[in-house]
Amino acid sequence: MKNYIEEVYNKVSIAEGQSTIENYLFEVYIKGPVSMKDLSVKLGIPIPLVTAIKKEFIKEDILVQKGGVIVSEKGKDYVENQLGYKNLDMKLYNRILEDDYVMEVDFSDELKLVSEYLNNRPTVDVTIDQSKCTPETSFKRALLALKNNSLIGKRILCIGDDDLITVAMALLLKRLYKDTIYSKADIHVADIDKRILDYISSVASKEGLRITLHHHNLKEPFSNDMIDSFDAFFTDPPYTISGMNLFLSRGVSALKKQPGRMIFFSFGNKSPKDTWEMQNLINRMGLNIINIIPRFNKYEGAQIIGGVGQMIVLSTTEKAEPIIKEAFNDKIYTGEFRVTERNYQCKECGEVIVVGYKKGFLNIEQLKEKGCPKCLSKSFDLKEKKVVKDN
After folding, report:
1. Arithmetic mean of pLDDT over the chain
2. What is the DSSP pairing of strand 211-215 with strand 186-191?
3. Which pTM does this prediction carry?
4. Beta bridge partners of 166
5. Separation between Cα atoms, residue 59 and residue 76, nearest integer Å
6. Mean pLDDT across 196-201
7. Which DSSP string do the residues of 253-272 spell out, in sequence order?
8. For the N(4)-bis(aminopropyl)spermidine synthase C-terminal domain, which residue ranges apply (predicted)?
9. Helices 108-119 and 165-176 meet at what angle, rounded to 10?
10. HSE-up of 125 (CA within 13 Å, CB side)?
């Protein structure tokens, strides 16, 4: 079957990109009959352009004029079988789009599973700035992708996924489809931590989820099969400007070279100087800031960012281009810039253990997991914290 969205995009000059043509068709499919005025307001494009798109879809027999515009039988078949909407629970889908749901009630089973899997994931590796987000945050991210037309029928990448966003998205899709074989979504994850990838693989196998895994160090460029091939990506990069630059650059390189491709970028609040630098890098990459959602992300611990972080929703323009294209050899992780040591005292025997970079224990989680070297107790008090390198 022809790619009718691409056909119409090639005939109508629209700077907003092919994704706007997709959103146009989805809006008519979901809510038709729809007026030109309502489509103009929803899509943020002028009525003459809305009308021009309609005419091209009508020529292809995808839309028909009937008390507004609706999809034809051919259009319905195209949306459902080619774009992946067949057998979708439209009632639940519409409720999500209209924010007519209570996540803790309507998705209690999915949240329970996400919570269970997050609780049992591998210990965080603070040397690569891992931190534990809450189950609600993980599932909210999946819902955010859905609301931004970046999940149904889409190829989506998670760049780093110790928060199990891939699992949350796959569980959401499983709930939305009566039979998951109809879901055309293609979920991928790229991570340097093989423990995380192995864990996601085991969860996917247990739950019958389709998730493709890539063991990859982002300091190296993606392979050719990853370049220019994704519709959207998530990333929660290291809490440094260089880390943010690298992770966003790799993600942009993986996106299709089209305006309107979505990026879901989680980052802690920074100083005014760092915020300006972050925004400058975003601008240099040819990205638009669509939305900034304060306190969207909540983390367990994560003292560096105060336990909360913002979600920055970005989209590509026709000028989108990664800043970092080749191998990257500079520092990106917080601990590479600011090395700290902590002295913990065992509550049982009084032994003092030094925790930190190049010590016997990298972090308190490792110490608790293995226990006191002297008595194996897992209960400690923090006695001293000091910076040993700050640059």
Report:
1. 92
2. parallel
3. 0.86
4. none
5. 15
6. 98
7. HHB-SSTT-EEEEEE----H
8. 112-324
9. 160
10. 14
